[in-house]
Amino acid sequence: QVQLVESGGGLVQAGGSLRLSCAASGITVSTNAMGWYRQAPGKRRELVALIRSGGGGTSYADSVKGRFTISRDNAKNTIYLQMNSLKLEDTAVYLCTSYTYWGQGTQVTVSS
């Protein structure tokens, strides 16, 4: 049974930082492309960042480039999203995916 469990969301002031985690079981994150998506109320789900299998090349949405970093810990079978310089518009539910399976999401709220 595959599970992706996100954690690390919360309420943060604009300009602050959060680190999201996605602990995987039933799959191996190093052999799967893994992504972080987000969905704000009334908006479409959008890709935030992805990390490719194997070598771990990364890609980011233009809106988060230079502020967010996706990474992977193979020993812990976990991926992370380090989010710095958070903006009000980053407020959303953040979801982890292996592109076959999805986690339940973690809420990130950025306040002014």
Low-confidence stretches: none
Overall average residue pLDDT: 97
Q: Looking at the structure, what is the overall shape?
A: globular
**Sheet bearing the most strands, described?**
6 strands, mixed
Number of strands: 10
Task: Give, in spatial order, the strands making up the sheet with the most strands.
Answer: 2-10-9-4-5-6
- Derived from helix and strand composition plus strand pairing, the structural class reads mainly beta
Write the layout of secondary structure elements.
Elements: E1 3-7, E2 10-13, E3 18-25, E4 34-39, E5 46-51, E6 58-60, E7 68-73, E8 78-83, E9 92-97, E10 106-111
Parallel strand pairs: 2-10
Antiparallel strand pairs: 1-3, 3-8, 4-5, 4-9, 5-6, 7-8, 9-10
Describe this structure in words.
With 112 residues, this protein is mainly beta. It contains no helices and 10 strands. The strands form 2 sheets. The protein has a 6-stranded mixed β-sheet with strand order 2-10-9-4-5-6, with no helix packed on it. It has a 4-stranded antiparallel β-sheet with strand order 1-3-8-7, with no helix packed on it. A hairpin with a 4-residue loop joins strand 7 and strand 8. The radius of gyration is 13 Å and the shape is globular. The model has no long low-confidence stretch (mean pLDDT 97).
Give a concise summary.
With 112 residues, the chain is an all-beta fold. It has strands at 3-7, 10-13, 18-25, 34-39, 46-51, 58-60, 68-73, 78-83, 92-97, 106-111.
Key terms:
single chain; 112 residues; four-stranded antiparallel β-sheet; globular
